[in-house]
Amino acid sequence: MHPTLLPVAEAQTRLFALARPLSTETVPLAGAAGRWTAEAVDANRTQPDSDLSAMDGYAIRHADLPGPFALIGESAAGHAFSGTVGLGQTTRIFTGAAMPGGTDCVLVQEDAERQDLTIRLSGEGPPRVGSNVRPRGLDFSTGDALIEKGQRLTPAGLALAAIAGHATLPVARRLTVAIAATGDELAPPGTQDPGKLPETNGLMIAAMLRDLPVEIVDLGIIPDDLPTMTAAFAAVRADILVTTGGASVGDHDLVRPALSAAGGSIDFWRIALRPGKPMMAGRLGDAVVLGLPGNPVSAFVTAHLFLRPLIAAMSGATDPLPRPFPARLGEPIRANDHRQDYLRAELRDGLVFASTVQDSSMLRTLARANCLLVRDPHAAAGQIGDAVEILPIA
Ligand SMILES: Nc1nc2c(c(=O)[nH]1)N[C@H]1C(S)=C(S)[C@@H](COP(=O)(O)OP(=O)(O)OC[C@H]3O[C@@H](n4cnc5c(N)ncnc54)[C@H](O)[C@@H]3O)O[C@H]1N2
Ligand code: MOO
Q1: What is the pLDDT of residue 252?
Q2: Residues 71 and 156 occupy one common structural domain
Q3: Residue 1 has pLDDT above 70, yes or no
Q4: The domain that contains 276 carries what CATH number?
Q5: Which amino acids bring their CB within 6 angstroms of ligand 1?
Q6: Of 183, 278, 307, 176, which Cα lies nearest the Cα of 236?
Q7: Residue 248 and residue 51: Cα distance in Å, rounded?
Q8: What is the ipTM of this complex?
Q9: What is the SS3 assignment for 181?
Q10: Listed residues 86, 106, 134: the one ending a domain
Q11: What pLDDT band is residue 2 in, cutting at 50, 70 and 90?
Q12: Could you tell me which residue ranges the MoaB/Mog domain spans (predicted)?
């Protein structure tokens, strides 16, 4: 008989509910990259703060065309012309420089000829008032709402915050993630011992978190021994404890008993998910515990669906879940059973092809995949060209 399996979306909601809010810190912009805004970012200045030239040329009054113009000075970026330009006059002007008083458009230098202090039109000239000028406030004005609370700070978002007058931003403090692999069969990568298996999951999961605001504590390999595992868990000081392996029902699957013995509690166990069914979540002291299955592909998929989103949610993200993208099937696919399926697949030219063998121990197909093909519980069989959803993973 099937045990009751929690739907994926419900498990994600329950997992986020296990987390307590993190305190915030105010950091220099460079340190805020890839973190989530703890407060909305509003403009502290107007951009541009005056009318600026968008081209190199001559600042003129459109009504004075076709000229000629008497050259009376220069306006460069950071060095505005201090006077006023009168009838039939012009100043040299460069990209990013303030428009002198009395001018309203820029004659690009390719359309002008200079002879001593006289500028003559040699091409078409600016077609209208405002040509080649960036008006004050083109991008935004003081007080405009620029970035909402809970948004991830992209490189462009950081540049926007800087040009809006900010040098620092408040973000959630960096959280600590302790990662433990469990299993007597495991040995560090490079092992040639017969009967030993190179440990993959700790390494893989740490690499999956590299773009997130976390400090990683590597707890290494914990053997399948209840007192040892209990002691290792009891000593953890972290915001999140991630384990892999020992999550299922075998006699050597000790993560749940060790967690209880260390004083922790399980909130849920077993998800209607493939791969990744035996995943569990709970708490241990101040930490949220995420017990991922040992099969490497199951660990990868559950880390993608639960661990990364948990870190995002704890760090203040409004939308912590990975965003699915639409694609079309490149080949027929069977009907699904009661578990939500995440098939290793390749997206090529908008068409998605799932690997034929989906055993959750096989890393070769995972390493080749660039997306997961999402199949809802009881999804009907699909034909070439049918609309599906994918999660990019590379
Ligand atoms: N009777 C049942 N047996 C199993 C069930 C079940 O429902 N009933 N579920 C199966 C599913 S689905 C999965 S997934 C696995 C996961 O079990 P565990 O989390 O207990 O994982 P282990 O048994 O410890 O390991 C599974 C597999 O993965 C290898 N492994 C584990 N950790 C690592 C690591 N860090 N690096 C590399 N490889 C690792 C391990 O050697 C095993 O081969 O349970 C099924 N069984
Ligand atoms: O859920 Mo297990 O992860 O199917 O292999």
Answers
A1: 84
A2: no
A3: no
A4: 3.40.980.10
A5: 181, 183, 185-186, 197, 199-201, 244-250, 253, 275, 277-278, 293-296, 298, 360-361
A6: 176
A7: 66
A8: 0.98
A9: strand
A10: 134
A11: low
A12: 178-313
